[in-house]
Each structure stands twice: as structure tokens, then as C-alpha cells.
Amino acid sequence: QVQVTESGGDLVQAGGSLRLSCTSSGLTFDHYHMGWFRQAPGKEREKVSCINWSGVTTYYADSVKGRFTISRDIAKNTLHLQMNSLKPEDTAMYYCAASYEYCSDSPNYWGQGTQVTVSS
After folding, report:
1. With contact defined as beta carbons under 8 Å apart, do 96 and 79 qualify?
2. How does pLDDT run across 3-45, given as a tens digit for each residue?
């Protein structure tokens, strides 16, 4: 059974930093492209960042470009999202996802989410 689990969400002040992590079990980690999505109350889900299976190719939404960094540690089956210069508009539930297709809008596996709250 495939399981994807996020961690690292927290309450932080504007301008602060957080590092989200995502681990997986039940799937061969380096066979999947990975991504981070977020959804704020009353808003549509947004694709935040993607990374291909090898970690060479990445994508960032314009709203986070230059502030967020996605990375993966294949040896540890772990995905990270380093978030710097956080803004109140970054407040959302953040989801990790695994996909057969790079940067898919419909990933094959989802985590349960971790809450990020940025206070002004």
C-alpha cells in the first residue's frame, strides 16, 4: 500500500522560513516525479513546485519563484520544500504528490497535507 506523508508545517511570522518534508512508502521513490501543491480555504488548489525523478528538472509557480526550493534525497526517499521569505498569502494546506508524469495536475498519489500558516 502506497503512503505519502508530509511534515514540517507550522505557524511562522511573515519573512520567516519553513522546510517541508515528504516521505513515501510502498513505491519506488526514484521512479516517480514529485510535486508540492497547496490549497487555501475558499481557493482552488495550486501547483507550487515539481521535480523530476532524478532531481535535475524543476518547476516553480510564479508566486513562489525565488523564494521556494524543491529538492529530493533519493537515498532517503525524501522530498523537501524549503520556503523562505514567507508571506501571509502562502498560508495554505500543503500537499506532497507522486506522479508517473512530470508535473502532472492529477498526481497518482497524494499525502494528507501539512498546514502552513504565515502571520502578518
Report:
1. yes
2. 999 999 999 999 999 999 999 998 888 899 999 999 999 999 9
Element (H, E) at 32: none
Contacts of 87 (CB under 8 A, 6+ apart): 14, 118
| pLDDT at site 43 | 96
Among 43, 47, 55, which residue's Cα sits nearest to residue 96? 47
Residue 1 DSSP class: -
User: In this structure, what C-alpha cell is assigned to residue 54?
Assistant: 532524478
| Residue 85 dihedral angles phi and psi, to the nearest 5° | 50, 50
**Distances from the Cα of 1 to the Cαs of 4, 26, 51, 73, 106, in angstroms?**
10, 5, 23, 21, 19
Rounded Cα distance between 72 and 89, Å, is 25
Residues 72 and 79: beta-carbon distance below 8 Å? yes
Q: Residue 81 in contact with residue 35, Cβ under 8 Å?
A: no
Q: Which three cell numbers stand for residue 14?
A: 511573515
Query: What letter represents residue 105's amino acid?
Result: D
49 burial type by CB count under 10 A (0-12 exposed, 13-18 middle, 19+ buried): buried
